[in-house]
Amino acid sequence: MILRVFEDKSSIARAAAAQATEAIRSAITMRGRARVIAATGAAQFEFLETLTTTPGMDWQRVELFHLDEYIGLPESHPASFCKFLHERLLDKTGISNHHLLTGNSDPVEIVRLATEAIALAPVDVAFVGIGENGHLAFNDPPADFQTEKPYIIVQLDEACRQQQVGEGWFEKLSDVPRQAISMSVRQILKSRDIICIVPDARKARAIHACFSGEVSPLAPASILRTHSNAIVYLDQHSARLLSPDTLSAFAAST
Length: 254
Fold this sequence. Notes:
This protein is an alpha/beta fold.
């Protein structure tokens, strides 16, 4: 894993989009298609805007997998991750081969369908973020590091739900669903490349916990340290609690 620190979100977006573009194009050249996992949330805004406006991308050869979604939330809701992906990725690129986790459908059936689809071949690149509680996808602490199931139904903890209120997706905590479908930690780690984008000062404590302490289910995204081709993109604000020794240790692949 590599940690890279940038001045601001725009700088992160350009660097991460360049890596994503290279990974997608390389997969298409070698295998005729690229299998991609997409995250949602405010941290992805600038990155997806830059990626979707990159010229010369053959989006019809991209197969898209959804990272997580609230259970019981209709796509018309502003917080729907399906809505997010349509507006910020699918509608802009014309990707037609996708596997969305529709929140207001039977979650057991959605998990079954997504599991069958993702098991057909390896994923080339995953776009992920890290939550204020250190979560990876909706794997809140203590995360399940052992399950081999590609998708699981999870209970959302209060810190995770409060983050959604703080970001403006919901008016109050009681409006935030208590359950979600999430890609499992082990499934994320099966991706050939992982691009993790984590700007903003409100993520600084989670970044410190995940990359200065032990690899632990209590800091779910710490598991990224075990992946040989993961790059975590930070800005000066999210990296502010990391020591120079920590930054140096992850300056090259470990």
